[in-house]
Design brief:
This protein is of the alpha+beta class and 390 residues long. It has helices at residues 11-23, 57-66, 109-114, 217-226, 273-281, 353-365, and strands spanning 71-78, 85-93, 97-105, 118-127, 134-137, 144-150, 153-156, 171-174, 184-192, 199-202, 208-210, 235-247, 254-265, 286-291, 294-295, 307-311, 316-320, 325-333, 336-344, 367-372, 375-380, 383-389.
Length: 390
């Protein structure tokens, strides 16, 4: 009898998260900033659903990355230093994005009157390298980490991804349905304007949105022009607003659009990771060091390690797959790499083609980029598929 391979350490947490996503079905979440605080009683949640482990970790991660119609919603009251608690509602979608509302409970009437009680966040979530935790990027004060402890529970960890030693509650429990979220976004961003096409990149999540020409937009445009910023160049700002459906620039469709409520111009040196991704990718040649979570296999000619380079002026991506040179259209939408029509030479190299085919497949599909400590990581959904160094 042939036995199924044993899951690697940390995979149990990913299996639990997969079960949680699968149990929630395909209900669509709200736009993220409508209605009132979604206080859903976690006691209404259905009975736990047992995880069914697939044959390998890759099968689990593939499910998480290729079922964008599925969502997981969890909620709980987390500890608060100066209020009664923070009702936290988190929605993850299997495509690697999330929405969160944080409602501060039991605050002073003055704070309620000021509207300083409900905050929203949109960002990206990924599975950590050990496959045991979930990382959420989109907060100005750094990433947050959770660990699935059962098919029903996500446990909040500390800022280093370690368990919090406390008797207080740090658990979020699965909800029976996907709630609508209402919190306003307060974000660091890079605003651009050129030829009546305003746009904004959220610095920590890397999302890029067109900006609606309404609410606080006109004042922001005037300030952009007054700052003397070259057309199309980014102006760092602090924004309060929301992401809402608005008609697209062309056609009859609608799309996610950022509606500016208030803004402040930030210091030019204010960190903006999304812009740092673009600067890093344009620095020169990046060499592949990891592929699908494993070191790059030893190739017959070490000098032909797969590489990628990007020319932002020409919107061109080029490099080698390990045997053949390739090039094609490539641009960044925020921190998302978008490519099209990669083409190259057609040589055959013994012992290289499998790696090259996978590299070209990944680059053709694109994904979100993260730049940390000199390493450029490419994610497809919540899964890291490639890692590069200079």
């Amino acid at each position: 009898m042939r036995l199924a391979p044993r899951p690697p350490p940390g995979l149990a947490s990913v299996l639990l998260l997969t079960a949680m996503l699968a149990a929630c079905g395909s209900d669509e979440p709200g736009e993220g900033q409508r209605g009132t605080d979604p206080g859903v009683d976690p006691a209404e949640a259905p009975a736990p659903v047992a995880a069914t482990p697939p044959g390998s970790a890759e099968g689990v991660l593939g499910l998480l990355g290729t079922r964008p119609d599925e969502h997981l919603a969890v909620q709980g009251e987390l500890p608060c230093a100066d209020c009664a608690g923070i009702r936290t509602t988190l929605i993850l979608d299997a495509g690697g994005t999330f929405q969160m509302d944080e409602a501060y409970l039991g605050v002073s009437p003055e704070r309620v009157a000021h509207g300083d009680t409900l905050f929203g966040t949109r960002g990206r979530w990924t599975v950590t390298e050990d496959r045991a935790r979930v990382r959420l990027d989109g907060f100005d004060d750094g990433p947050r980490y959770f660990r699935p402890t059962s098919p029903e529970i996500l446990l909040l960890l500390d800022r280093q991804g370690e368990e919090i030693e406390s008797e207080l509650n740090y658990e979020l429990a699965r909800l029976p349905r996907i709630p609508e979220l209402a919190g306003a976004l307060q974000v660091r961003a890079a605003f651009t304007y050129m030829a009546d096409a305003p746009g904004v990149v959220l610095c920590t999540s890397g999302f890029r949105y067109p900006v609606a020409m309404e609410a606080g937009y006109l004042e922001l445009e005037r300030r952009y022009l007054a700052e003397g910023v070259p057309p199309g160049a980014p102006l760092r700002v602090h924004l309060t607003g929301s992401v809402e459906a608005r008609p697209a620039m062309e056609g009859e469709a609608t799309g996610a659009t950022f509606v500016v409520r208030t803004f402040e111009v930030a210091d030019p040196g204010t960190p903006c990771p999304a812009l740092e991704v673009a600067d890093a990718l344009a620095e020169g040649e990046w060499r592949l060091t990891s592929l699908d979570g494993a070191p790059v296999p030893t190739l017959p000619d070490p000098g032909e390690t797969p590489t990628v380079s990007w020319d932002p002026q020409e919107s061109q991506l080029h490099g080698t797959g390990g045997c053949n040179r390739y090039s094609g259209r490539g641009f960044l939408r925020g921190s998302e790499l978008v490519t099209g029509g990669l083409a190259g030479t057609r040589r055959y190299c013994e012992g290289v083609m499998e790696v090259e085919d996978r590299v070209l497949e990944i680059l053709t599909a694109g994904g979100s980029l993260r730049f940390e400590e000199g390493v450029l990581r490419l994610f497809q959904g919540p899964v890291e598929v490639a890692r590069f160094r200079r």
